[in-house]
Hints:
Radius of gyration: 29 Å
Organism: Chryseosolibacter indicus
Distance between the termini: 48 Å
Number of domains: 4
Protein name: Insulinase family protein
Helix content: 40-55%
CATH class of the largest domain: Alpha Beta
Amino acid sequence: MIDKTLRILLVLVLLFTIGCKDEVQYEVKQGESNGYSYEYVTNDPLKVRIYTLKNGLKVYLSKYEGEPRIQTQIAVKAGGKNDPATNTGLAHYLEHIMFKGTADFGTLDWKKEEVLLDSIENMFTTYGALTDSVTRVNYYKLIDKVSNEASKYAIANEYDKMVSEIGAKGTNAYTTEDRTVYINDIPSNQLENWLQIEANRFQKIVPRLFHTELEAVYEEKNRSLDNDYWKTYEALYAGMFPKHQYGTQTVIGTIEHLKNPSITEIKNYFTKYYRPNNVAICLSGDMDYDKTIASIDKYFSTWQPNGEITPLERIEEEPLKQPVVKEVYGPDAEWINIGFRFKGRSSDDFQLLRLTDMILANSQAGLIDINLKQKQAVIEPSSYVDYLNDYAIHTFSGRPREGQSLDDVKKLLLEQIELLKKGEFEDWLIEATINDLKKSKIKDSEENWSRSNDLVIAFTNGIPWNKYIGEIEALRKFKKEDIVKFANENYKDNYVIVYKRTGKDLNAKKVNKPSITKVVLNKENKSPFHERIGKNKVEKLKPVFLDYDKDIKKLSMNKGVEVLYTPNQENELYSLYYLSDVGTNNDPRMNIAIEYLQYVGTDDMSAEDVKKEFYKLGSNFDVFAAEDQTYIYLEGLSETMDKSLALFEKLLANAKADDEALKKMVDGIFKKREDAKKSKSTIMFSGLMNYGLYGAKSPFTNVLSNKELRELKSEELTSIIKDFTKTEHRVLYYGPKKEQELLATVNQYHVLPDKLKPTPEPVKFDMADAKEPSVYWTDYDMVQEEIMFLTKSEEFDKNRIAISRMFNEYFGGNMSSPVFQELRESQGLAYSAFAYYGTAAKPTKNDFFYAYMGTQADKQPEAMKAMLGLLQSFPKSDNGFEVARNSILNQIESERITKAGILFNYESARKKGLSYDIRKDVYDQVQRFTLADVEKFQGEYLKNKNFNVVLIGNKDKINFQELKRYGKIQELSLDELFGYEKVQKINLEKVNQ
């Protein structure tokens, strides 16, 4: 159904653009249906009903029928800020414990298990009081022994098994300073089962498998200590809040407190804050309001409140009167963060702060966008606001160009604030910014995740819903003089600056973890509660597969160029893509050329003027170059599409060479390349992973060398830009225009030559056969190690798609999989561990497999042995197989490919040589698979394979003797991994044919 309310809002956006000053009224109304009272707000685009149950539980419901699924978020109005100063990290650790089950599930015999868990709780209290290191080690061995005995009664990850079985996706949780939120995306027909599970787990905490989960939290802490971004964040907050909990403690907790955890204090935290009068259930999706609230009341009404929950007394910080300077050292590239402190999310500061931030940086036409990013004065300049309950921080960030100092970056960023204070920004920018926010909010409302998150933010910040949804419209009351006044009052020398410098962190720390014994997982068992959930009768949803002939209109514009069309029947937004099968493997200059596009103008418009004009029109364009495809896309309001497309085509056809812009861009690329060599994630997941799969020559290293970059000419790149629409390509459109109206528009503005050029042949890269397995490693200053097993598999075969998905879901795709359970739950060997068999994107490509783990350096041998053991000896679990099967079936039955996703699903299928939605094969075959089929797949494609291993870690901590077991060891330099010094010898004549 068309969402009429959204259409009304979009019309209002357009009316405001041309000067209408009428205000939308958001009035709070009272409603009643089926015996339940609720609040709602007039003109609410999300159609939210807010209920309050007798026990104080808030329920926010937003109906959206995009697909038969519901995004669920259960929000607790308490986070790291609420931790006692003597036991930091409780909120975060409790979040982990909430996945361990209750007295009804996750246990084989609760009465026997409870006795042992009580003993473990008391033992941890005693352990926390011990100071002698030897005594502590010996006593922890006793904890480990009793914990092992308790684990015999535990059913590991039964919660995850249950929600996976009902088709949940994205099962997770997060803890911030102010809130803790538990997340699932479930099929709408499984709402009743989900409610039974959640109502049970929120009414009693059971800290089972405590010491193995403590290992995971230790790993998470060590990962944060390896993360320069995280360290910078903590330094900024410490400087900003010398008295408030935001700065005096961290969500994950201090090392000292993590070493002395108190189960009793965690229980106290749960008892105090995990009460219905401090929690909201926030749902968005395909639901019936009356049935949903009745079901929630049925299962949650027995949850008892804990009296009046007294909010924490807000700690007032003294005003900052001079800059506070912090320094952080680490192996990553340099940058700075500058933060200004404001009042919190629900304060009067919020509106003007939001508007100020967008005028400074809106990704297109803000002062920072135009003066720093567009002019290439700084690398990655940005501005954003971190909105917390008690305070907000307006943060400015940037990286230096070659030859710049961090103080140079600081000066340039602060200069933009000074321009704002002087009112040196164009008047139209305020109106355009408000409309941009409105457009973004409408686009966000197409996603249940965004909708439910809005509900969470409103609840946890105590913002009335009518005020929340009216915030953007309320911005229209502000004038330029209000913004200038606000800036002058708030942006002075009252900031904290963090210099992130490249170098060894002399204060580096890590959590030393006590050794533990492998615990029992009882993977094959089910609790009676789980059995009952499985027996509940649920009306099955029927899967809906795409029919490419019906769901996509295959039109043809001038010169026979294909136009793929899917109508937007929901609102007035459009997306238009020009998609070419020319990628970086066809021409490694492609991604350079399309990056250059953002820095050039036309004969009569500067690059800055182009960006501003797009922003005025409520449109934006972007570009993307992959190995085998490039696309340029335009999106925005359909009302202004013709004007935007005319401007877009003008830029593509008349891009004006700018030598100065090219020189700056190339200099910036050189600096980004050097920065990439300092990025742990880039080294691991781009450099090492590609080397492990392909060897020295890979799609990742198929880039212009530094020498070739320096020799590039402006005209060379503008020629590539102009040739883009002269080379074979197709047009993809999702929007509200009718078919003939769309064709008339693209025929008018998308001017084509008489004959399109054919796409040049790509360079082909073959994956390496690991006949003699190798271990490739790179030195990096870090506490942990990150390790990956990789292997090439067979050429693409569509008949493997279904079984590979079944294998992934069973083997390494979630918290109930053998990979996660063995490495994290059973032995505490890794915080992060997963495995994936990837099917090729094209018939000429090969499938591949990788298994990843992030582990403590001293646990490298055990972790690698455990992972390889899983790859070579198939872990059988009938229970796990049924969970995986049901998970896939429930997901497919409830998922719907919609909107622009239809177009890209078709493109993906066509690339594979398929003419139909492959999910139909998956759905049919998964129902017939047996555990023996999955074992056969593992035996054929993994068991007897050789694996290359890639590893990043500190050379002083890597156990090289153990690494010899996995192949020939070879250290790789960053130059070998990144390939920037190699000359590619581009055949320009062939490329330009």
